[in-house]
Specification:
Elements lengths: L3 E5 L4 H12 L3 E5 L8 H10 L4 E3 L6 H10 L3 E6 L6 H6 L1 H19 L6 E7 L23 H19 L4 E7 L1 E3 L18 H9 L6 E4 L11 E2 L1 E3 H16 L7 E6 L5 E2 H12 L5 E4 L8 E2 L4 H7 L7 H20 L1
Parallel strand pairs: 1-2, 1-4, 2-3, 4-5, 5-6, 6-11, 7-10, 8-13, 9-14
Antiparallel strand pairs: 9-12
Helix pairs in contact: 1-2, 1-8, 3-5, 5-6, 7-9, 7-11, 9-11
Length: 344
């Protein structure tokens, strides 16, 4: 019998691709999503790719009673992958209380329910933002967790502390925090991809929306950073690689391969690209010249971050396989598909 896995935020960008990867490996998936930053149409995309329609519950995880009721209804959940969170750095600076409520309360309510289960498994969607501006690059998991540059980053730091502290007193709970670098791209079928509501907060959807004519030009936040071309450097990882990593991490938990019941892994390519290099990669695969302007720095941004992926490579036996060009090509294909749908 296939194992039943809960994916919170499963209609979001990374969540939806992970649901596909889980279903393709034979897991039975239940999605919780309150559709605050996603669309029910994504469920159709997942179903078209896998030919399986995952169970879906429209629940706001900030409602403690609703979380409890969910676990009473689905009492055979064997693992949880927790994506549901607000994630825009700029918005978190402007509205910190929203971020603390949404990103921390939901985590606490899930863990309270999992503690009651016999052998709960939990994967947390964390972020390289916990490192702030690291002293050394590439960044290893042992790098110092610095004071967060934004409330969003702080919720990831506090979230990891909550899980670690809970694991210390709950020996039967096994958990992994996955610290992503910068996820980009889309499923090669172009059935699912990044679907920002309103103005995109991430670089690549802004690139593709500009290229297709939805936006006049792209803003590059600062060209005076101490980097080769003056723009910020990030580790851009294809969402398909990221989704596969979640399946591998889950299998590690289910197979009881952990030495300790809480582990942390970086997920990236191990290579940094500047914002201008990312733009050039898009122009190369799309054949489209991108209009952009240099504007002032954005609050909360750091100069450079890219991963040392040795631990994930060695322990999880996982390695990123796609290039930044692959990711840009899939993101462009997805943006074109969205436009086609609008024109029908």
């Amino acid at each position: 019998m296939s194992k039943r896995i809960l994916v919170t935020g499963g209609l979001g960008f990374i969540g939806s691709h992970t649901v596909v990867a889980l279903q393709e490996k034979g897991f039975e998936v239940v999605i919780i999503d309150n559709l605050s930053n996603s669309s029910l149409e994504v469920l159709g995309g997942i179903t078209r790719i896998t030919r399986i329609s995952p169970e879906f519950e429209n629940i706001d995880l900030r409602e403690k009673a609703a979380v409890k009721a969910f676990f009473e209804k689905y009492n055979d959940i064997e693992g949880v992958i927790h994506f549901a969170a607000s994630k825009a750095v700029g918005e978190s600076v402007e509205n910190p209380l929203l971020y603390y409520e949404n990103n921390l309360n939901t985590l606490i309510y899930l863990l309270q329910q999992l503690k009651e289960k016999e052998a709960p498994k939990f994967i947390f969607s964390s972020s390289c933002t916990v490192y702030g501006q690291a002293d050394e690059l590439p960044i290893t998991e042992s790098a110092q967790v610095k004071k967060a540059e934004s409330p969003y980053g702080n919720t990831k730091q506090i979230g990891e502390e909550i899980i670690s502290d809970t694991c210390k007193v709950t020996p039967n709970l096994k958990a992994i925090s996955l610290r992503y670098f910068n996820p980009i791209g889309a499923h090669p079928s172009a059935e699912i991809g990044e679907l920002p509501i309103g103005t995109p907060q991430n670089l690549v959807p802004y690139i593709t929306q500009t290229a297709i004519g939805m936006r006049e030009k792209l803003s590059v936040f600062g060209d005076d950073y101490p980097t080769p071309d003056g723009t910020c450097i990030r580790d851009y990882i294809h969402v398909m690689d990221l989704a596969r990593a979640h399946v591998v991490a889950l299998e590690r938990l289910l197979d009881d391969e952990q030495q300790e019941n809480y582990e942390v892994f970086n997920l990236g390519t191990g290579k940094g690209n500047s914002v201008l290099e990312a733009i050039q990669a898009f122009e190369k695969v799309s054949g489209t010249k991108l209009p952009y302007q240099i504007v002032g720095r954005r609050e909360g941004d750091i100069t450079a971050a890219y991963a040392d992926t040795t631990r994930a490579n060695d322990v999880l036996k996982w390695k990123a396989e796609y290039s930044i060009e692959d990711a840009m090509e899939s993101a462009w294909k997805w943006q074109q598909r969205l436009k086609e749908k609008e024109e029908v």
